[in-house]
């Protein structure tokens, strides 16, 4: 519960409690705080038990800690089932499909340019290859009604 509280912080809290309550009222304050914490834990456990009973037998292994997104991802996505974080990144990476589509468009453009130009695929007016291109192609007429 207090995993990040160090010795210095704990000592500061004890000194602050002694100053605020004094040595004669401090034991009673500690008892009161511990009773409140105990009641709160009982209440939360009772609420968890009621929710589990209401969900039915198919949710017997349900843990409320799984509702935390980090715990859920750690338990269900990164549990070593063969598709860890790197597998998800590779599956969602669009670069291979985009490269394949770009290569097919380039091949089609080169094939079309080779049919139109007797000099070769890179001599025509349109080429999608980087750094290669012939003279600038004329623009088609603009239809102002269509735009």
Automatic annotation (TrEMBL):
Compartments reported by the entry: Membrane
Pfam families registered for this protein in UniProt: TatA_B_E
Annotated membrane topology: Single-pass membrane protein
Main location: membrane
Keyword tags: Membrane, Protein transport, Translocation, Transmembrane, Transmembrane helix, Transport
Region (Disordered): 102-147
The keyword Transmembrane helix belongs to this UniProt entry's keyword annotation: yes
NCBIfam families assigned to the protein according to its UniProt record, in alphabetical order: PRK01371.1-4
Name recorded for this polypeptide: Sec-independent translocase
Biological source species: Streptomyces glycanivorans
Taxon lineage: Bacteria, Bacillati, Actinomycetota, Actinomycetes, Kitasatosporales
